[in-house]
Design goal:
The complex is a heterodimer of chains A (about 220) and B (about 425). With about 220 residues, chain A is of the alpha/beta class. Chain A has nine helices and eleven strands. In chain B, a hairpin with a 7-residue loop joins strand 10 and strand 11. Chain B has about 425 residues and is of the alpha+beta class. Classes of the chains: A alpha/beta (about 220), B alpha+beta (about 425).
Chain lengths: ~220, ~425
C-alpha cells in the first residue's frame, strides 16, 4: 500500500478558479502566455476544464475568493475590487494588470446637496470610505445597474467601478472621488502555497514574467 | 436568520453524533497525554468572563448581562484568561522558571458563520510562560507538529518571525497609523499593494527594498541568508538570528519551512510564529507564536480547533478509503500456483470462485480487474488490451509491470 499513499501525496496538479465573463479570455491568455496549456472544451456551458496543464473551474467573480480560501482551488484570478469588498486574506502575489478600473464615488453632474443614501455593489468598501470621509450616510446594497439608483433618486450617490467613464458621461453622472484602483490579481490559497510550492512558485514566477513583458501594464 | 430564532439550534452550532463524539474524545485524550508527556499541566478557566473591551477578541465576544447590570462575555479565547490567571499568581508554581500549561474547552465567537466557520468550537492548546529563547520556540513548534500527527495527519509547518517585519517597518520609518496597512500587504504577499504603499509613503533605500523583498522570502532555510544580506538594522538581524536558532533545534527540516512575510496581528505577536498545514486541506490546522509583553512578560503558545483538525483527519480517511477501493486487486486467478507466485512478490490476487474460465473472466471484469490467471497463463482482460504496450506474457512480466507501474506513477506525478 506504500505506492498508494505515495501517489496521493505526490498529486501536484493545480486547480485554478477563474471568473466567467469578460475577464475569462484575458485570464486564459495570461495562463497561455505563462506557458500553461488550458484545454477549453467545445461546450460553452462547461464549468470545469480538465486536460491541459491545469484544471480550471469557472464561476462568478465574487465566488473566486471562497473557492480559493477553502482550498477547493489552489489559486484563482479575481479583481482587487472583489478582494477589497470581501476583506480577503488570501495571498495575492501577482498583479495581472488587466481588468483595470477604479472604484469611485459617483454623483449626478453638478450635484452638491448632502449625501444621505449611497447605493453600491460594494457595501463594505462604501461604508469604509464614508466612515473615513466623515460622511454619515446609509448604504443600500444593489446587485447591478447602480447608476440607475442615482438617476431615479433611490440614492444621492453610488459607489461603482469605472473603466473609461463613458457610461457615466452618457448618463449625466460624474466621478466625485476615486476610492481605490483595481486590476485582476492572482490569488493563492495559503495552505497550498506551503504544501505545493513546486507547482505554485513556478506559476507565480511565470505569470510575473509574462505580465512584465506584455503591454498590458497595470495602471499605477 | 429568523429560522434560528424559532426552530433548530443557533447558527454555527452543531450536534455531534456518537461515532464522531467518540473520535473527538479519542483525539482529545491523545492530545492531553501528548502535552502531559512534555510536562504541561492542565488548567481550567471559567467559560463566563467579565467583558473587557481591551480583550484581543472583544469584537467577537458573545455578551450577556449579569444580575448587577455588568456585562459578561462567553470565553472567546483561552490565552487572555490564562494570562490573567498566571499574573494573579494563583497557579501555585514557583516564581522563577518556566510554567507549562495545557487547556481545552469550548469557545464562542460572535461572527457570521460563513465559509465553514462555526461559532461554538473546541479549542485545545498549550502555553509556555516565563521563558523566551529559541529552545522554547522550538519546543512549541515540535509539539504543534506532533499535535497534528496525533490524529494521523502529516504536518507541514511554516515558521516566521513578525519581529523581522516590525524591525523593517521601524527602519523604514513607516508612520504608526499606516503600519497595519503595510503589514497586511506583506502578510498577503501582495507586491503590487505593497509597492503602492511604499511609493505613497515616499520610503526609499535599503529598508524599503527589504520590506518589498519579504513577499518572496518563503521556503527552505536558504531564505534566511537572502534576508540577512539585506537586513538593514541590528533589530532585523536579531530577528533573523532567532529564526536561525529555532531551525538549528531541529535535525529533520523536511516538515518545516520559513516565511519571513508572516505579519499577522503585529501588535500582538512579537516573536516567532507558526502555522501547521496538512496535504489536501486548504486551511491551517493550528496556529500560535510568541507574544512577549502583550499579555505576559514572556510567553508563547498555540491553539488548534478540534473540529477542524478532525475534519481534516476525516477527509484524509475518506480519501485513503477511496484509494484503497480504487486499488482493488487488479488480478483474479483460477490458477492457484501462479497466484501464490504473484502474492509472494507483493501483488494482491483475488482467487476466482467461478466454475469456468468464461464466468471467471466476466466476474473479474465486473470487479474492475485487469488480468486473469488461468491454466498457467496470464490473460489480459478487455480494459487493458486496448493499450499500446505489450500484454504481459508471463507471471514475471506481470509482476514487473504491476510493481514498476505503481512506482512509476508515484514518480511521474511528483514532477512539477
Amino acid at each position: 500500500m506504500t505506492g498508494v499513499a505515495g501517489r496521493g501525496a505526490a498529486d501536484q496538479r493545480l486547480v485554478v478558479a477563474l471568473p466567467k465573463g469578460r475577464v475569462l479570455p484575458r485570464a486564459l491568455a495570461a495562463l497561455e502566455a505563462a506557458g500553461y496549456s488550458v484545454a477549453v472544451p467545445e461546450d460553452p456551458r462547461a464549468l470545469r476544464y480538465e486536460g491541459g496543464d491545469l484544471t480550471v473551474l469557472l464561476m462568478r467573480n465574487g465566488d473566486v475568493p471562497a473557492y480559493v480560501e477553502l482550498g477547493v482551488a489552489d489559486a484563482g484570478m479575481v479583481g482587487r475590487d472583489v478582494l477589497l469588498e470581501q476583506a480577503s486574506r488570501l495571498y495575492a502575489p501577482v498583479d495581472l494588470g488587466f481588468g483595470a478600473c477604479r472604484i469611485s464615488l459617483i454623483r449626478p453632474r453638478g450635484a452638491s446637496g448632502p449625501i444621505a443614501v449611497v447605493a453600491s455593489k460594494y457595501p463594505a468598501v462604501t461604508a469604509a470610505h464614508l466612515n473615513k470621509a466623515g460622511i454619515a450616510a446609509d448604504v443600500v446594497e444593489l446587485r447591478g445597474n447602480v447608476e440607475l439608483a442615482c438617476l431615479t433618486g433611490l440614492a444621492d450617490a453610488v459607489v461603482d467601478v469605472v473603466e473609461t467613464g463613458a457610461t457615466l458621461a452618457a448618463n449625466g453622472l460624474e466621478e466625485v472621488a476615486v476610492i481605490a484602483h483595481s486590476s485582476v490579481r492572482l490569488v493563492v490559497n495559503r495552505a497550498a502555497l506551503k504544501l505545493k510550492p513546486e507547482s505554485l512558485k513556478p506559476l507565480i514566477a511565470a505569470l510575473r514574467v509574462a505580465n512584465a513583458s506584455s503591454d498590458a501594464k497595470p495602471t499605477p | 436568520m429568523s429560522t434560528s430564532q424559532t426552530a433548530g439550534i443557533p447558527d454555527g452550532t452543531r450536534f455531534v453524533a456518537p461515532a464522531a463524539a467518540a473520535r473527538r474524545r479519542e483525539a482529545l485524550a491523545a492530545l492531553r497525554s501528548l502535552y502531559a508527556a512534555w510536562g504541561y499541566l492542565p488548567v481550567e478557566v471559567p467559560a463566563l468572563e467579565r467583558f473587557d473591551p481591551q480583550h484581543p477578541r472583544a469584537a467577537q465576544a458573545f455578551k450577556l448581562t449579569d444580575r448587577d447590570g455588568g456585562v459578561l462575555a462567553l470565553r472567546s479565547d483561552f490565552t487572555p484568561a490564562l494570562a490573567r490567571f498566571v499574573s494573579g499568581g494563583g497557579h501555585g508554581a514557583p516564581a522563577s522558571g518556566a510554567l507549562r500549561l495545557s487547556y481545552d474547552g469550548l469557545v464562542w465567537h460572535f461572527i457570521d458563520p460563513e465559509l465553514a466557520r462555526v461559532r461554538e468550537f473546541t479549542q485545545v492548546g498549550i502555553e509556555l510562560v516565563g521563558a523566551s529563547n529559541a529552545r522554547a520556540d522550538a519546543e512549541l513548534i515540535h509539539l504543534a507538529r506532533e499535535s497534528v500527527r496525533v490524529v494521523g495527519l502529516r504536518p507541514q509547518v511554516e515558521v516566521g518571525n513578525p519581529a523581522y517585519v516590525r524591525a523593517l517597518l521601524d527602519a523604514a520609518e513607516v508612520p504608526s497609523e499606516r503600519e497595519s496597512e503595510v503589514a497586511d500587504a506583506i502578510d498577503r504577499k501582495d507586491r503590487s499593494d505593497l509597492e503602492g504603499l511604499i511609493d505613497e509613503l515616499g520610503t526609499r533605500g535599503p529598508a524599503a527594498d527589504a520590506l518589498l523583498a519579504t513577499v518572496d522570502l518563503y521556503g527552505d532555510p536558504s531564505v534566511l541568508a537572502h534576508a540577512k544580506a539585506a537586513a538593514p538594522t541590528p533589530a532585523a538581524r536579531a530577528a533573523l538570528r532567532r529564526l536561525q536558532g529555532v531551525i538549528e533545534e531541529f535535525e529533520d527540516l523536511s516538515e518545516l519551512q520559513l516565511d519571513l512575510g508572516m505579519a499577522r496581528r503585529l501588535s500582538y505577536y512579537t516573536g516567532v510564529t507558526f502555522r501547521v498545514y496538512t496535504a489536501d486541506f486548504g486551511q491551517p490546522l493550528l496556529g500560535g507564536g510568541r507574544y512577549d509583553g502583550s499579555l505576559l512578560p514572556y510567553a508563547a503558545g498555540f491553539s488548534l480547533g478540534l473540529e477542524r483538525l478532525l475534519a481534516a483527519a476525516e477527509q484524509a480517511r475518506a480519501r485513503s478509503d477511496e484509494r484503497a477501493r480504487s486499488g482493488d486487486p487488479l488480478v483474479h486467478a483460477l490458477d492457484d500456483v501462479l497466484a501464490r507466485e504473484l502474492r509472494r512478490a507483493g501483488v494482491s490476487v483475488v482467487r476466482s470462485l467461478a466454475p469456468d474460465r468464461a464466468t471467471a473472466e466476466r466476474e473479474a471484469l465486473a470487479a474492475g480487474a485487469s488480468y486473469l490467471l488461468v491454466a498457467g497463463e496470464v490473460v489480459a482482460l478487455a480494459q487493458v488490451t486496448g493499450d499500446a504496450g505489450d500484454a504481459p506474457a508471463t507471471v514475471q512480466d506481470l509482476i514487473r509491470l504491476l510493481l514498476s507501474d505503481e512506482s512509476a506513477r508515484g514518480r511521474g506525478e511528483a514532477q512539477p
